[in-house]
Structures are given as structure tokens and as C-alpha cells.
Fold:
Amino acid sequence: MELLLATRNPHKTREFRELLGSDLNLLGLSASPGISLPGETGRTFEENAIRKAVAVSKHRDLHDRHLLVFADDSGLEVDALGGAPGVFSARYAGENATDQENIGKLLRELSQTRNRAARFRCVLALARNGEVLKTFQGVVDGTIVDLPRGSRGFGYDPVFVPVGFDQTFAELAPEVKNQISHRARAARQLRVALQTGA
Structure:
């Protein structure tokens, strides 16, 4: 089965390839410069995921092929910050902020609080021919540590320790992270839906 992920982020494309398995031919948008992604202007992860999946699936080349398209929106929600950075996770420290800049801002804002409870949330939207077919959600709870640790992963992985572990996502082996992450949990639901036609 051929499936298109509506992203130009190579990290996400690689991670979803690993999560969904080799029997699915997962394509990214890197080879399709003519397909543009809409801005993430939604108020929720679900709105953003649907917006991207539907917009990409409307593209004429894909429409003619009836190709299934899915998009994700995901991010970090921190209790002490009222759920921030949330949908602004990728641009928390500014529109073109680096991972290090986003982490730096997060840690500065948490420096005066002991409440470090947080969660990663991922919503996937599946669409075809401009219509959303279904959405899937995965959540993993954890805590934010004081200093970044580990060199694996991306985004906020170096400061997030999932419940039941003492290592950050950036310290965990990829095969462990890919069992418990928010994306893994959402991707499992997507895979079941694709296999069963649900």
C-alpha cells in the first residue's frame, strides 16, 4: 500500500517509516516541491492535522491517483504553563526557532516551578480526495528535566522523561521510544485502520 505523509520534515518521515513498517510504501513531500502545505493556524493539533491532510490530498496529481494522505500535528503540553507550548511547540521561541532555542525558553519558564508534569500529544488525520476519513490520537505522559540529556531524537526529546522511565526520549534507544511514544501510539491505530479498512 502506498501512503503519503504530508510533511517535508525528514525526521518525521523516517520515524513514521519505522513505526508503520516496511510493508507500507511511505512517501514524504520532499520529492514533490509543487505541493504546498497550509500554515498551522488551527487552535488544536487535530485542526492542524486535518488541515494539512485535506489540503495535500486535494492536489490534482494525488486526486487522480486516489492516494491516501495522512498528516500529523504533535507537540508538548506542560501543566504548569497551562498546556503550552501546545500547537506552538515547533515555534515556541519564534517562527524559525531551533530545537535548542525552544528548549531554552521552556526551561527558563519552568525555572521557578516544581510542577514538571507534561505530555506529548500526536494527532494523525487520514484523508483522500480532499475528505478527512478518520483521526487518531496518541499521548504519552512524563516530566520535564532541568537539563537536556541525550543525543537521539529531536524537538523536546532531550528534556522529556516518559512515565516509568528514568531516561529522556533522547537517551532511550529508538526501538524503545518507538514502542511508547505519542507518535507510536497514534501510528498503531492508523496501521490497524489501514489493515482492516475501518
